[in-house]
Amino acid sequence: MLFPRYSDFDIEAGTDEAGRGCLAGPVTAAAVILGEDFNHEWLNDSKLMTEKHRATLRPIIEEKALCFAVTHLEPTVIDEINILNASIRAMQESIGKLHTTPLYIIVDGNRFKPFNDIPYSCIVKGDSKYKSIAAASVLAKTYRDAYMDRIHEEFPMYNWKKNKGYPTQEHREAIKKYGPTKYHRMSFRLLPDQLSLDFG
C-alpha cells in the first residue's frame, strides 16, 4: 500500500536515484510530481518490480505525472565529489528541472542537502511507501538501464547490458582482463585484492 503524499503541501515531489553501488556508468536520479489520483497496481520500489513491469510503467508515469525530470551524473563527477554527494546532486538537479516548483520534497533514503529553501524529509525505504518516490525510482532505474544498454554497444566485453555496471564476478574479471574504461569510476575499488590490477 503506497501513500499518495507525506506532507500537507499540495505540490510534493518525490526523488530517488539508481546506480550508487555500480563500478561503471552514471548515478541517475529522477524527481516526480504526481496528481492525487495517480494509481497503478504495479507501482512499487523499482527493485521489487520485474524489468517488464518497469518498462511498461515508465511511459505511463511520464504521461500521467504532473511533471518529471531525470539527471545522469557521470563517473568523472562521482570521482570528484564522491558517490553520496553525486547522488544528492543528481536528485537536486532533477528537482531543479521540474517545470512546477514543488512546495515539499520527499527523498528516498536518509541523506539529502537543502535545496532552494524547499522543506524536505528523508524517508528510509520511501520507494516502497510513497507513490512519487516509487515513480521516481522506476524512472531512475529505467533511464539508467537504457544508458547502460547504449554504452554496452561500445564496450560489450563488460556485459553492461546484463550487469548494468554492478560488481558481478563477470564484470570484475573483464576489468582485470581489459582494464577500466572511461565509464568506470576510478575512485571505486574496481577489483578485490585477489584480482589486483596494475593500472600503470
From TrEMBL:
Gene Ontology CC annotation, any one: ribonuclease H2 complex
Protein name: Ribonuclease HII
Purpose of the protein: Endonuclease that specifically degrades the RNA of RNA-DNA hybrids.
Swiss-Prot/TrEMBL catalytic activity: Endonucleolytic cleavage to 5'-phosphomonoester
Keyword Metal-binding among record annotations: yes
Keywords: Cytoplasm, Endonuclease, Hydrolase, Manganese, Metal-binding, Nuclease
Family the UniProt entry places it in: Belongs to the RNase HII family.
Residue ranges occupied by any RNase H type-2 domain in the UniProt entry: 10-200
Record-listed E.C. numbers: 3.1.26.4
GO biological process per UniProt: DNA replication, removal of RNA primer; mismatch repair
Pfam family, one: RNase_HII
Annotated cofactor note: Manganese or magnesium. Binds 1 divalent metal ion per monomer in the absence of substrate. May bind a second metal ion after substrate binding.
Lineage per the UniProt record: Bacteria, Pseudomonadati, Bacteroidota, Flavobacteriia, Flavobacteriales
NCBIfam families xref list: PRK00015.1-3
Recorded superkingdom: Bacteria
